[in-house]
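ugh ok so i messed up the first submission bc i forgot one of the chains. this is the corrected input, ALL of the components this time, i swear. 978 residues overall. if the numbers dont match what u have on ur side tell me asap before i send this to the collaborators (the ones from the other lab, u know who)
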Amino acid sequence: MTDPVPLLQVEGLRVEFPTRRGVLVAVDGVSFHIDAGEVLGVVGESGAGKSLTGAAVIGLLEPPGRIASGQIRFEGQRIDNLRPERMRRLRGRSIAMVFQDPLTSLNPLYSIARQLTETIRTHLDLDEAAARKRAIELLDEVGIPAAARRIDEYPHQFSGGMRQRVVIALALAANPKLIIADEPTTALDVSIQAQIIALLKRLCAEHGTAVMLVTHDMGVIAETADRVAVMYAGRIVEVGDVQQVIGDARHPYTHGLMGSIPMIGHDVERLVQIDGAMPRLTEIPAGCAFNPRCPRALPRCRSERPELVSAAGAQVACWLFDGAGSDR
Amino acid sequence: MNIDTGHPPETAAAGLLARAADRLRRFFDSDIFHSFRTSPVTIAAFVVTMVCFVAAFFAPWLAPHNTNDVATLDLMNAFLPPVWMEGGTWDFPLGTDEQGRDVLSAIMFGMKVSLIVGFASVLFSVVLGVGLGLVSGYVGGRLDHFIMRVADVQLSFPAVLVALLLFGFAKTILPRAVQDDVALLVLIFAIGLSNWVQFARTVRGSTMVEKNKEYVQAARVIGRRPLAIMFQHVLPNVMGPVLVIATISLAIAILTEATLSFLGVGVPPTQPSLGTLIRFGNNFLFSGEWWMTIFPGVALVALALAVNLLGDWLRDALNPKLR
Amino acid sequence: MLAFIVRRLFQSILVMLAVGFIAFSLFNFVGDPVNNMVGIEATIEERERMAKALGLNDPFPIQFARFAGNALRGDFGQSYRLSVPVEEAIGERLPATLELVFVAAVLALAIGVPLGVYTGLHREGAVSRLLLTTSLIGISLPTFLIGILLILTFSVWLGWLPSFGRGVTVNIGWESNLVSWEGFRSIILPSVTLCLFQLTLLMRLVRAEMLEVLRTDYIKFARARGLTSRAVNFGHALKNTLVPVITITGLQIGSLIAFAIITETVFQWPGMGLLFLQAIQFVDIPVMAAYLCLVAFIFVVINLIVDLLYYVIDPRLRLDGGAARAH
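and heres the new structure output, hopefully the right one now
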């Protein structure tokens, strides 16, 4: 079972963007947790708020975006209200992040060695030589061939896949307990995606690092995650064990998402498709945000907002599962 | 006899009016207008610009004295200080110069010259730059390469220097007799020619993007002339950036004109611009008659600053990403 | 790398040839060289003899080659106005201009870059807003007016600093203003005048580049790795703004030489710019041609140096093998 105190606990997180046409709520009342060593997949369409949730956790929301309410706890301690300097020390040391595009994630003017040793020496008490040694080990670990030689090269001398390996090495530099991976494979060739995901999964398992894997790719989630949270229009609509959610999705939105994935061996006439598009942040409807597109919407869905409730091993925010026993 | 257009004239007019009103409403609701309304600095800049325009172009009616008419000058009035100083009078609120010319009126007439040269030279830059940019981007190949190389080289030479050189050329080519008559045209030509590069670059970039779009290919297939298509489709797209560059260029052109006139190679002394006034006044700086220099200088800076501020605002308003 | 430099050199030579051609045309087509040499009253035979002596009857390419050859040796003939060899007139005034430009460039860089970084990092701060507004005024103030205002304030009203000329100079191989305090006093007002516009431009440019770079992914990633603000802002961000800043600084030094014409006029500073302006007013073609070639040469050299600096800063250009390695 899970620890009494999870590694990361997010409660009622609300991220807002003040604009002159009013306040946009990009993340609305999101709660979830990640246990030590666990991989949580966060899935949803672009604009669902998953990347912002990740940015909020690591304290890198771009102004004017801000956390309006809610709490983020890391190892039981609140981190959403830490002073910038304390938060900085946490970043990289305890919580690391991997971004989407390896081509732009590395500073083009510094060698790989310099970027790695700089990061290592910021967090660990090592001299230059020891930091360099560790840097080479890290590159070895992420599968860069001839690491000792290539370490002095510059980012542009590496291919996209290799750069993402370097990025992962940078994220792991100080042995963090949690990595937030924001679409880590989206920008890569399909042939390389699987390698990178496998690498990330293996390394985190070896180091006991937990991962918050943000992606829109259900396939990646199915392969990698222990649990999955599905986001829609800034809210979590379903969260649970990955097998449970994939095999037996409760929320109509999740159901639609699953239906849109082609699967080998399943003989279906055609893939299901969800009609319409996710609403813009300015036009989120009252009640359940999904109600205009939902094939099974009830009158109640248009006026009252459903909260996450337990439904057979998972948690679902849907009026179809209100109270125990009620079912489809 | 009027052919029936399907609408009685009243409704057509009403429709037009409604459409105009709708446009106006949309304009007042637009982001651009909002950013204008909420920026006091921009409003102030707009007001200053308008005051300058009105003062300059209505100078013959508004100015207290006609400084272009030598007969009205009286040497008895020479070197009068501004009104608030000992010996100043309300007849000459900002004082007079060594010939008894009213400084305020001279500024108003001078500003007119400055603005005319400024606008005309920017117009010239726009026509030249947009034209060359369009051709360069559309034709591509060697012609494009050549035009852009010329642009690069010219860009590494500051506008003032280019204008100065062109002016030197004109001075050597033209017979002395006509020099004063065409000096204004030469000045406009020189400043305009020193400023076209930015327009050309911007337009070229958009043209290259646009020319590969499908509708252009399609229009070509049905036999429309490519350059006509370019004008119709590229120009509207680049009007925003061109407007921004033109506004900032206007400030630059006004300052360049003032600089050249200050150096004594600009407008002829018979049509003094703000720069000429400063040049004349500068001779009396050491004897204490500062107002002959400072007031035209203040007018020049106020105008340039206001136009610069408007350009700055326009760029931000049209390009919110850059904030 | 070598290929790049060779290509750059080749381009520079082309530019110089083009400028040389313009200068040559000035000589031969615009002004009538015979008229200029012998005067309007000369007889036809005298003119013929002069034309022959000057080689004006030779084919065009030979004339141009001769001009270029002479120019390379620094020989541009006699100044019409001063009746001394042009190279002498310019040589005398070159140090004055170069010293002025040097001091102004140092001032602009030493003040403009830090202010740009500051306003880029604290974009919403009150000091930044004040600096930005002031800088806009700086851009709207023409150089000559700045000079006049400084003279009025520091020479006429306060009487602290000299308002014209080079004052006391010391010969250190050339006449210099920089080695004695008396001489330095004279260069203060002109160099401040000259640098102010470039300073504001540089500050605004560095600010814009900083804002641009601070939005990039690698800066976000650097923050996400917990690097200190100092390392992120001054190590990662500032270095990436350097490439455009160097380009502009190169251009700016060119501008400084051009704007020196104005400053030298205001302060009656006996440099090349003042010489050139007088040459334009008196249609002194040899001086104009020589100045044009010299300034073009300086610009070309600056551009070459800028290109080489790119190499030092940006490893992407340093690639020895050619294309990037792929895996």
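quick check: The first helix of chain B runs from residue 9 to 29. that seems consistent at least. DSSP finds 13 helices and no strands in chain B.
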